[in-house]
Write a structure and sequence with these properties.
Blueprint: H1 15-40, H2 49-68, H3 73-76, H4 81-95
Helix pairs in contact: 1-2
Length: 97
């Protein structure tokens, strides 16, 4: 296998993201309980499977980023003037306009 094709695993901790995910999970859970309680007319957790699956999906994405050790999520999230200009040029090249 050539060095260019070799995949490497370089785990990198992401404590800030983990704390932010905990805040998001707590807020989502409280919102879920609030919605279920409103529908039931009393304090209730309702059917927890959808919110648990959603939290597990977030945790899985976070774990994938930790294991890869790369800043793959940073490719999608930052929006700068240079990125917007380049995206527009790419779009125009693809559409011919």
């Amino acid at each position: 296998m050539s060095p260019a094709l070799r995949l490497t695993v370089r785990p990198a901790t992401r404590p800030l993201e983990a704390r932010l995910l905990l805040v998001v999970a707590a807020a989502a859970f409280l919102g879920w309980v609030g919605m279920a309680s409103t529908l039931a007319g009393r304090l209730s957790i309702g059917e927890p499977l959808p919110i648990i699956c959603w939290m597990l999906a977030l945790a899985g994405a976070h774990l994938a980023f930790v294991v890869s050790g790369r800043s793959l999520d940073q490719v999608l999230l930052p929006v700068t003037k240079d990125n917007v200009v380049q995206a527009r040029k790419d779009f125009e090249a693809l559409t011919g306009g």
